[in-house]
């Protein structure tokens, strides 16, 4: 049984998550501790999970190759009517399997028979989440790639069936009853989908066609589902932005018509005129983050539509990971599901953050301003789970790897004078390897390794029991640096030359 379960939730094999149960908080969500183990996902972990041993197992769905065989919409709103979600899934004919999460929420799983790109998995789940009214929920995988070269692991999801059939993390049958582990595997067999079928899958709309397929998906969905009293003002505002884009010469008349035709209990003339007057004064942007639009937002689709958000939409900046080693910190941050690597300075300075985004993912997020950025970073840090990492993945460790590559790749000098030709000279008698620091700096630039000062370089060299000397070469006094000889047979790694990589 555990082998079938393992096959269903196959993901990253070099790290996994674990969770220790805690007490529920004020809204009923179960608390606890989460942490990532950087180790192989051994068979024993799957067995222990199904047997109910603590801590439970969490799997990272995305592999180092940026591929997935499963993804999840994490519905984390409370209280939650699970049967109502099942009805929505059935009505839309979505190939999803719903499980109760550890905290009492819902995990809506999409399983594929083939390995597909993390990007495709996220795009489909984001679209479906918007149709279900859960666009604000987290989507797993949270990234479309992970930076394995820098110690990144991505984010894990706690698996169902901790303690087998005695669990409260069970799947739901179509009638809303709890599924046994055997029944869950049957649900997987029935609902897992091929890549071809996923690409061609079209959501069956709930009602009539709205005619807003060129505008924001949220507006299209709300019109099809029906606009209730709670969000009438905001929806009319959203429509006004759309109408001005589409009909710049007659948008005012369109607003009154929309109010009568699509809002179940139409707004009064005074409120309609107020909306028109408001939008006559200036051009506003869509209210993507406001209710009820945020529940049905599909940003990636909206950006492609003629009268969608286009380039004006804010980037989603979330899921900060902090990796610490030797008193040094490296951060991984999701920007529109793309992984950006940051130093502490990059994180705390919005301008530096934007530079990192442009360099690494070709994205320039809309500026928030100093105070808003500070508050946003503080929120990210509050939710962040620090991780420890091996020294080799730190800035200093990566410099050491480049230093060793420099010594081994530049060519071995026959005499001290050849260090002037950027070679390294091994003095057997002194048991030292000599080189020029400016030659090393040129090598680092060719490797695109930046933001590591000369002071830091010297500190690392001295930490390796190296130093500097003044030697006479061609009747001149020249400063050279040295480190103890490198054991070529035991060198554990070599850093590849990644032209587009920004190093820290």
Question: Gist?
Answer:
By secondary structure, the chain is an alpha+beta fold.
Summary tags:
504 residues; alpha+beta; DNA primase, PRIM domain; 4 domains; five-stranded mixed sheet; four-stranded antiparallel sheet
What does this protein look like?
The chain has 504 residues and is α+β, with helices and mostly antiparallel strands. The chain has 4 domains: 2-200, DNA primase, PRIM domain (Alpha-Beta Complex); 217-312, no CATH class; 317-391, no CATH class; 394-490, no CATH class. It has 17 helices and 19 strands. A 5-stranded mixed sheet has the order 15-16-17-19-18. Strands 2-1-3-8 form a 4-stranded antiparallel sheet, with helices on one face. It has a 4-stranded antiparallel sheet with strand order 5-6-4-7, with helices on both faces. Strand 18 (467-473) and strand 19 form a beta hairpin. It is globular and about 95 Å long. The chain starts with a helix and ends in a 21-residue tail after the last strand. 35% of the residues are buried. Residues 490-504 have low confidence and may be disordered.
């Amino acid at each position: 049984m555990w082998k079938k379960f393992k096959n269903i939730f196959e993901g990253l094999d070099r790290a996994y998550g674990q969770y220790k149960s805690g007490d529920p908080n004020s809204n009923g969500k179960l608390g606890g501790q989460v942490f990532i183990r950087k180790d192989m996902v051994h068979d024993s972990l799957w067995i222990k999970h199904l047997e109910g041993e603590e801590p439970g197992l969490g799997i990272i769905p995305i592999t180092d190759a940026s591929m997935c065989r499963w993804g999840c919409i994490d519905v984390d709103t409370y209280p939650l009517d699970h049967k109502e979600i099942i009805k929505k899934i059935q009505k839309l004919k979505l190939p999803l399997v719903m499980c109760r999460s550890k905290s009492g929420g819902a995990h809506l799983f999409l399983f594929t028979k083939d390995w597909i790109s993390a990007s495709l998995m996220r795009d489909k789940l984001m679209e479906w989440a918007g149709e279900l009214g859960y666009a604000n929920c987290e989507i797993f995988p949270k990234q479309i790639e992970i930076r394995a070269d820098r110690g990144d692991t991505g984010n894990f999801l706690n698996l169902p069936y901790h303690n087998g059939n005695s669990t409260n993390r069970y799947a739901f049958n179509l009638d809303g009853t709890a599924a046994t582990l055997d029944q869950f595997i049957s649900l997987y067999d029935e609902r897992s989908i091929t890549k071809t079928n996923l690409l061609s899958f079209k959501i069956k709309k709930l009602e009539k066609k709205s005619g807003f397929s060129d505008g924001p998906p949220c507006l299209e969905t709300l019109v099809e589902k029906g606009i209730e009293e709670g969000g009438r003002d905001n929806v009319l505002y959203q429509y006004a932005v759309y109408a001005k884009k589409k009909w710049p010469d007659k948008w005012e008349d369109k607003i009154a018509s929309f109010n009568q035709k699509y809002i179940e209990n139409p707004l009064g003339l005074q409120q309609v005129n107020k909306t028109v007057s408001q939008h006559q004064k200036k051009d506003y942007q869509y209210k993507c983050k406001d209710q009820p639009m945020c529940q049905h937002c599909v940003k990636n689709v909206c950006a492609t539509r003629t009268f969608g958000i286009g380039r004006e939409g804010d980037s989603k900046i979330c899921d900060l990971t902090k990796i610490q080693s030797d008193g040094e910190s490296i951060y991984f941050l999701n920007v529109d599901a793309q992984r950006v690597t940051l130093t502490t300075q990059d994180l705390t300075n919005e301008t530096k953050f934007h530079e990192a985004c442009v360099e690494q993912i070709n994205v320039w997020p809309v500026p928030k301003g100093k105070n808003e950025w500070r508050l946003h970073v503080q929120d990210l840090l509050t939710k962040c789970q620090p991780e420890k990492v091996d020294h080799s993945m730190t800035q200093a460790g990566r410099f050491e790897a480049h230093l060793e590559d420099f010594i081994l790749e530049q060519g071995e000098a026959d005499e001290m004078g050849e260090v002037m030709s950027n070679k390294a000279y091994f003095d057997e008698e002194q048991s030292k390897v000599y080189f020029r620091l400016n030659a090393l700096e040129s090598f680092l630039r060719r490797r695109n390794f930046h933001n590591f000062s000369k002071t830091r370089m010297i500190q690392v060299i001295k930490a390796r029991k190296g130093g500097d000397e003044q030697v006479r070469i061609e009747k001149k006094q020249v400063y050279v640096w040295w480190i103890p000889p490198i054991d070529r047979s035991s060198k554990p790694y070599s850093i590849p030359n990644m032209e587009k990589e920004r190093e820290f």
